[in-house]
Amino acid sequence: MEVILQQTLAAVAGTLAFSLLYGVPRRYELYCGAIGGAGWFVYAVLMQKAGLSATEATFVAALFLTFLSRCAAVIEKCPATVFQIAGIFPLVPGAGIYWTSYYLVTGETGLALENGFAAVKAAVAIVLGIIAVFELPNSLFQTLCRKRKENHP
Amino acid sequence: MDKPQAVLKGTALSSQGRETGEDARLVLETAMEAGHLLLENGAEIFRVEETMTRICRHFGVEDSQFFVLSNGIFTTGGYSRQFAKVQHIPVKGTRLDKVVAVNQLSREIESGKYTPEEVRRELERIRRMPDKPLLLQFLASGVGSAAFCCLFGGTLAEGTAAFIAGFFLYIFMKLAAFPHLSRIMAHILGGAMVTAICLTARHFGLGERLNPMIIGAIIPLVPGVSFTNGIRDIADGDYISGSVRLLDAILVIVSVAIGVGIVLTAVGRLGGGALWK
């Protein structure tokens, strides 16, 4: 669990850094960091504690962080992508891409294929997670998240 | 020829309250400018179309049509004087603050705060919004690289090496690669440069394992915006733009992998593979 928390901290820092690179307005940067960290936390817990496969964990984490992004979008009245683009980075199979090219270079084609396929599966899982949450009607997020806004005007 | 002018609703278009083709033209050009800003700074297609439609509808220009692609906007509309315009919008860096600002502006337009002239001035202000200082961007790239290196199991020393690689990578990308090179070549060279820096760092005893260092340092090259927006566009039914963006994401990723691979191969040949483990 300690490792997962350390990794989550790293994910928060990384997401914050990338939100800065993409010019996210300063007042939204903390949301981005929190959403990126939450996505990784869900992914790591599901994979290491609940025994889900990497693809399944990626899918659920993508669902979760897209859901949070849409909530933040309703609260702050701004596009959901602002929160989502940086938040998705910890889930993007950057390592898978690296290992694929690494094994291609070292001539271990079987391992390269395996890693490349895993990276593609992770990417598809992210795609499905994002699409599934964006199919939900906006009114759902309005009722879920707008109320909190009214409490402190 | 002269058709009766449609009555413009919303705020008064010109100070005298005249409703002419000129006004419709101004509204359409303003809408296009808003769309242009959104598109080149990383908004999805539906957001561009929605914003343009909102602006036109609010100022009473009802008979307008937009066709938005990932790199261009086609507009027709207007009353008796027909308005038609095509704008090519090449891919630029992502500036989400500008997307947020235009989005905010379009909400404020709907609440009736602006005349078209004022909207144009606002858009011009948004276009000129200053970028974050370059040094801060380089540092952010370095911190991001270090963070992802640690996320993928790197030690503190390896994270430091990734920081250095990410820092110099972004200097190269921002000042040399993006303005002067094609996206493919820029990312091949970027991947190669990162790998070379990580090899050098390890050669001088900074970090032990090459893999987490390189994985961390190539993350700033990952095409997160093209990927996410491409998915959104396809989900919205904008297949052409979505495919173009996903193709861009794939090209970039493959290019980075090639860049990393080239340097690893070259060093492997020279050093007999001993350098890698």
Q: Descriptors for this entry?
A:
heterodimer; A: 153 residues; mainly alpha; 7 helices; B: 277 residues; three-stranded antiparallel β-sheet; 10 helices; 3 strands; disordered N terminus
Total number of beta strands of chain B: 3
Separation of termini of chain A?
38 Å
Oligomer state equals heterodimer
In terms of structural class, how would the helical and strand content of chain A be classed? mainly alpha
**Largest beta-sheet characterization of chain B:** 3 strands, antiparallel
Number of helices of chain A: 7
Share of residues in helices of chain B: 55-70%
Number of helices of chain B: 10
Helix content of chain A: over 70%
Let me know the number of strands of chain A: 0
SS-derived structural category of chain B: mainly alpha
Describe the structure.
In chain A, 83% of the residues lie in helices and 0% in strands. With 153 residues, chain A is mainly α. Chain A is globular, with a radius of gyration of 17 Å. Mean pLDDT of chain A is 90; it is low at 149-153. Chain B has helices spanning 21-40, 45-58, 96-110, 116-127, 134-151, 156-180, 183-203, 210-218, 224-235, 239-271; strands spanning 65-69, 72-77, 83-88. In chain B, strands 1-2-3 form a three-stranded antiparallel beta sheet, with helices on one face. The longest helix of chain B has 33 residues, at 239-271. Chain B is elongated. The N and C termini of chain B lie far apart (80 Å). Residues 1-18 of chain B have low confidence and may be disordered. The interface between A and B is large, with 47 and 55 residues.
SSE topology:
The complex is a heterodimer of chains A (153) and B (277).
Chain A: H1 2-21, H2 26-48, H3 54-76, H4 81-87, H5 94-106, H6 109-135, H7 138-151
Helix pairs in contact in A: 1-2, 1-4, 2-3, 2-4, 3-4, 3-6, 3-7, 5-6
Chain B: H1 21-40, H2 45-58, E1 65-69, E2 72-77, E3 83-88, H3 96-110, H4 116-127, H5 134-151, H6 156-180, H7 183-203, H8 210-218, H9 224-235, H10 239-271
Antiparallel strand pairs in B: 1-2, 2-3
